Amino acid sequence: MRLAFADPRNLTLSPLNMHYGRPDPDVSDIQPSVRQRGVLLTLLVLETMADGAVVEGHFEVVAGRRRWKAALAAIAEGVEIDPVPIGILEPGDDAAAIEASLIENLGRLPPDEVTCWETFTRLVKSGRTAEQIAATFGLSDVVVKRTLALGNLLPRVRNLYRKEEIDVATVRCLTLASKAQQKAWLALFDDPDQRAPVGGSLKAWLFGGTSIPTKNALFSLDDYPGQIRADLFGEDSYFVKSDLFWRCQSEAVAARREALLAEGWTEVEVLETGEPFYSWKHVKTPKAKGGKVFITVGMKGEVEVEEGWLTDKEAKRAQAAAEKAARGEDPQAAEAAKLSRPEVTQAQGRYIDLHRHAAVRVALTEHPAVALRMLVAHAVTGSAYWEVKPDPRAPFDPAVAASLAASPAEQAFAERRQAVAAILGLGKDAEHVLGRRGLGGVAAVFALLVGLPDEAVLAVAAVVMAESLQAGGEAVEAAGAWLKVDIGRFWAPDDAFFDLMRDRETVNAMLKEVGGKKVADGNLTEKVKTQKGILRDFVDGTNGRAKPEAWTPKWMTFPAQAYTRRPFDPARRARTVAPMLRRAEAALKPKPEAIAAE
Q: What's the pLDDT tens digit per position in 518-532?
C-alpha cells in the first residue's frame, strides 16, 4: 500500500465499498471537525482505471466514505480544505478491498446481517473461504456459515429482514425453504386477508401437510392415471392420491437422473425427500473437473436440479489430485478424484472379498495344475503373504465372521485341507498346512514329497497356494476369471449381505436387476432400508414378489462389476487383469502355420 494525498473532487465510490449504491450517509457528527481541520484519517482507495489504463490523480474510495462525503460537503460550502490523505491498495486484490471496507464499518458500527452476507458473498467469489473470513473478522466459523446461509433467501425476504419486518426465528426457518415455498410465503405475507406463518408455526407450514399441487409434477399430467382436483376458481389443482403421485414422480426423477448421466455427468445424487441442498456447503465445479449433480425433492414433490457441485471435502481432494497430476506424480489422480466416494462400505467390501476369495480357493483345489502355476508365480515375484504364511482372512466384523462360518466354500476347503494334512502327517486338527517348521525343515518335507505321486503333490501344492492367496488382491481376480468360478455353487445372499449395504443408489440398481426398471424407478426416492426390504422380497420370493432364477449380484461374479460409476475395488482389479488373461488365451491358441502343417 502506498500513501499519498488527493483532491476529494477526484474521488468516486468504489463498487467494492460495502455501502455502494446506497443513499449518502449522515455526516453531521464529523462535519465541524472536517471544516476546521480537514480530513486527518487516511482513506483506503484503488486507482481509477479506464480502458485498461490508470487515470492519473483519480481514485475510488474503498473505505472512508463518510470522511470523503464530509470533505465534499465542506468544499460545497466554500471551505478550503487540504487534499485528503489516502492509502492506495494494490490493483487486482478485490478481496482485500472488500475486507478493508467491512472491517472499518465493523469498528464503527456493526452492520446488519444482510449487509454482512452481501459482503461475505463477494469475498467468497473473490476466493476467500468461510474459515478465512472468520479469522479475518474475529468471528466463529458457525457465525460466518449462518450468515452465508442467508444466500438461500430471495432478495425480498432479505430486505424484509434488514428492515426488521420479520424476526430472526422466521428468517432462519425460511433458509430451509425452497424458492417456491418462499414465494408462496411472500404471497401470504402480502395478502391483507391472510396471516403468514412465522417462527415455529412457519416450520410446520414448510414441512407439514399432504396436499401436493400439480405444478410440482416432473411428469406430464396427460400421462397421470389418477385423479386431479382443482380449487373453486380453477387456478390451482392438486393430486387426490399422494402415494400415486410419489410413484410417478419417483419414476420421472429416475428418468431425469438417467438423462443427466447420458449428458456426461460423472455422478447424479438424488437426495432423500425433504433433504435440502446447501450451496454454501459445496463448491461450484464444472462437469469437466468432476462436478456432480444433486437433485432435491421437497416434501410436496417440488424438484430442483443443482448442476456442477462438489462437497467441500471432495473439492479439496480433487484440487490436491489435480495438483499432483500437474506435477506428473500421478497422471490418473485427477480422474480418480472425480469418483471419490466408494460404492461399498469397508465392511461390505471385506464381505465381498472374502466370499469371492473362498470360492476361488476351492476352484484352485479342483484345478491343481493352475494352482501350481500360481504357486510358482508367487515364488518368483513375491506377494504380501509369501514368507510363506496363510492369509489371516480377518473379517473385521462379527456379521461377516458368522457368514463365512456358514459358507459351503469354507467347509469344502476344510475337507481338502484335512486330506493334505493327512498326507503330510499333521493330524486331524491342523488349521493350516503352512508354517510347519516342526516337520524337519525343507529337506524333510522335500524328501516326503518326492516319494509321493504327482497327484498327491499337486493336491498339496493347491492347498498351499490357496492358503497363501491374498484376499482382496488381483490374484483372486485372475484365478477366478480364468477358471470361470461360479460363486453360486458356494454362496447366496444372506442376512449379513443385506445388513451391510448402506448405499441407496447401489441398492436401487440391484432392485432394477431383480425387479425390473419400473419397480426400481418407482422406489428411487425411498430410504435405503425400504428398498433393501423390497430387494430381499424378490430374492426370497416373499410378499408376492417373483423370485429370479439364480440371481448373483455383479459384485460377486467373476469378473466383478460395479453398479455405479463410483470406485469399487474388485471391478478395478478385474479390469487390470483382463488384458493379461486375453494375452494368455491368445498364446494358447494354435498358430496358423501349425494348423496348415497338420
A: 999 999 999 999 999
